[in-house]
Hints:
mainly alpha; two-stranded antiparallel sheet; about 55% helix; RNA-directed DNA polymerase
Amino acid sequence: MEIVHNELHKVREWFCVSKLLLNLSKTASILFRTPNRQPDPSIHTINFCGTDVPLCHSVKFLGVFIDSHLTWNDHIQSISKTISKNIGIIARLRHFLPRKTLVNLYNTLINQYLSYSALLWGGSYCSKIYPLLILQKRALRLKINYQLQHSPRDPFAKLNILPVFDIYRYQVGIFMYSWIWNTLPNIFRFTFQFRHETHTHLTRARNSLSIPAFRLTSSQQTLRFTGPCLWNSLPPKIQSCNSKYSFKKSLKSYLMDKYRRP
């Protein structure tokens, strides 16, 4: 806790220098830890500027629920409930609206929730994301009046829409492309490394990104691990796109290929 108080003191100084005031009535605190590590039962609040800020297990920040274990369970459950309600809206309107309007409705009521901040929570366990895929399929079948016996690939291929798992891969790919071309903020500059920066062996993969050796599965779900893995798996033709627009177009086509196959 001494480290926490020292860092909070720096935060307080920054607020003073910047002539800003923190609204403590709308402030919460979280102690991040692994699931198998128990919190100190004697710690219920954190003192900041003479005010006790309560400890929370989960808090909503910029539309994303962040929990103390970074499992993203609360956020996934929240958007699942929202999407489930919105599917009911699409079901009631599908007989009265043309296909183009239904597509816009899907993008507004379904896709924005599957895409928003997916770079953070999209790497969670497949078992957690799978319910979102079921809801996404249900929404797409309502849009194109598909029956349940059709192949699960059909609605995605027919409408050229990425499943929720590939929405995450798509966003990871765009992030990695931006890092390669050095268009991200400086804070991300040293997040990844090329293999030739870690060793001098003249191997075929020396221009690939180095994949960190994480022991925990939860660490392997982070962008530091999934980013290099995805980038190294892309064909050189896609990696060498000379504009972000052409990269995004090529990447989506690459991810959609498996759904177009008979």
